[in-house]
């Protein structure tokens, strides 16, 4: 990737855009609108619920995304791009090529582009998109009760579409009902009203819809990979193309950037009719040759959207600014922090990238910090937080491990959000999560240390405190990679959900492990971390599997597998009690026994203490450093 001549790639893309090919003739002699659609639909699959989707991975090439109705005929776009992809080889990913081509298309048609974050790494299959549907896995885990009105976690109302049904909710051409769905679905991608209206009108400045006749596009790639979407109207291409089933452009200048879309929308009276493709769309006698979709009309039927439509209709400078930034956010949302971006056109960190201050040049003496942490572990501060006791000695090591784990385990590999860099666990919403009960008091225990050292970030201190506790508990040196900095608020974690939900569902545990990019062995090993009985009680549970949280051992697995467990309700929470003993496990612990793969790993660890400690510490270090990015694949701690 470092060897790529990005300017040369842009030049090749620009030449391709206006070189029409007989197998798929360019509308108006320009493939630009086609490529904008491809980039939008590749990126627009992203959803904030779990970070799945987006163009990183280039999974639009694979099932299930490849055969989505909204991706009809985009196989031809990739055929057009193949000579460029072949020329630059593996250094140019499909994900980067698709997005850069969309950018170049916008630029060459006169539109504004804010920047380009290169660094997407191609997947080898579409497995990371399976939860988006339609797949058996999606139907089992996240069923949609009414296709056309899908709720979160879906990013769309209709499986196989990017946002909403353009024809209207459940195919009914009622713009007033479409507006709430538009707002909801764009919100599921973290877009506000300004960004939504800028993207829709800016995107629809270009190109046309295709629905030459009601016969449809023919079989999808999944149905007929040898001849996908041949088109059943005439020749199936050019004027006979069927893609979405709607027909016509939004403006009279479909290959030139403008704010005409907003003026056309506002300055004409629109009536619904069934177009040649058999779908409801809108026409106006005062704007012949153009059309609108129900979802377009919805922008004029909602007061907030309407004010923005009027703004952009009268002020193209405002549109240029808002569209370029919203397009960059759309196409870069799944790439994580700006530190993962490479290339010559990376703009400064944007708010959606959750920027952090730079690492100070001079860091504290961490050996001295570690010594102070060790004092804090055994210093009774029950006026701040009740400690655990073992052999009548106060012990805070397990709560320091708990704090570090809760901070770091917010990381999700799907869109590179979360992690402990920034220490956002200090602020809402994380500080208010039930699984983070009393973390404010744990932070108070560490506050004198944090205030004693210049340039000691909370993020480094939280991770180091947990690591020091584990060093002592395992009698093993553990590597520590400093340099984290602190966020000023919790805004970067508003999209995250707590992983430590104490779920008994094997499915939930597997989803959590996958989001954290943990292997089965790493996930099971980390389940055996030392736990604080006092902290469990503060979280609403009665007891623990051990009264000695000061030692990291395989006792967790020995106890889990060696006892008979019965469900008990003590208070509001379900726990499992060992028959005849005051030993307790959480539902998620028993799920390790119930899953055959997890069980086999637990048996390994129960049989070999040294194996467990070795694999646990390796997984711990991986988790603590998961968010220390250095380019798209690098890590500052390796």
Automatic annotation (TrEMBL):
SUPFAM superfamilies assigned: Heme-dependent peroxidases (SSF48113)
GO terms for biological process, alphabetical: cellular response to hydrogen peroxide; hydrogen peroxide catabolic process
GO cellular component: cytosol
Catalytic activity annotation: 2 H2O2 = O2 + 2 H2O
Record's keyword annotation contains Oxidoreductase: yes
Boundaries of every Plant heme peroxidase family profile domain copy: 42-381, 456-638
GO MF annotations, alphabetized: catalase activity; heme binding; metal ion binding
UniProt-listed PROSITE patterns: PEROXIDASE_1, PEROXIDASE_4
InterPro entries: Catalase_peroxidase, Haem_peroxidase, Haem_peroxidase_sf, Peroxidases_heam-ligand_BS
Cited Gene3D superfamilies: 1.10.520.10, Peroxidase, domain 2 (1.10.420.10)
Keywords from the UniProt entry: Heme, Hydrogen peroxide, Iron, Metal-binding, Oxidoreductase, Peroxidase
Cofactor(s) annotated in UniProt: heme b
Listed CDD domains: plant_peroxidase_like (cd00314)
PANTHER family, per database record: CATALASE-PEROXIDASE, HYDROPEROXIDASE I, BIFUNCTIONAL CATALASE-PEROXIDASE
Protein's name in the database: Plant heme peroxidase family profile domain-containing protein
Taxonomy of the source species: Eukaryota, Amoebozoa, Tubulinea, Elardia, Arcellinida
